[in-house]
Amino acid sequence: MSSKIWPFISIIILFIVIAVVIVSWYNYRLKKRIIDSGPIDEGAINFLRKLTDMGAEQLKWGCVLFSGGLGLVVIQFLPYYIDSPIVWGLELMFVSAGFLVYYFVIRNQQRS
User: Fold this and answer.
1) Are 7 and 15 in contact (CB under 8 A)?
2) pTM of the model
3) For residues 62 and 43, what is the distance between their CA atoms, to the nearest angstrom?
4) Is the pLDDT at 97 greater than 90, yes or no?
5) Separation of alpha carbons 110 and 112, rounded Å
6) Buried b / exposed e along 56-88 (16+ C-beta atoms within 10 A)
């Protein structure tokens, strides 16, 4: 990989980490305000459970990023021209496959 791309990748990673910290902090503040507001009914308890259940969101992005990376690895081994649209099409197919895997995993999880 070119040495020119590493600053770009590190900036993206930094922004992702900052976004995760901010979202977690606001979720904590929201949960604290709901709990401090007084008696909690069943709807509020279900809402609090949704806030703390981040497993499905992490699974989605794990599937999408993994399949996208796998698509880039496959593209690396294919002979293609610089302006060829096959690169974009193949990468979009791999990312779409990641979303489909996520959808089927969640659907099977909800059925059981």
Assistant:
1) no
2) 0.57
3) 30
4) yes
5) 6
6) eeeebeebbeebbeebeeeeeeeeeeeeeeebe
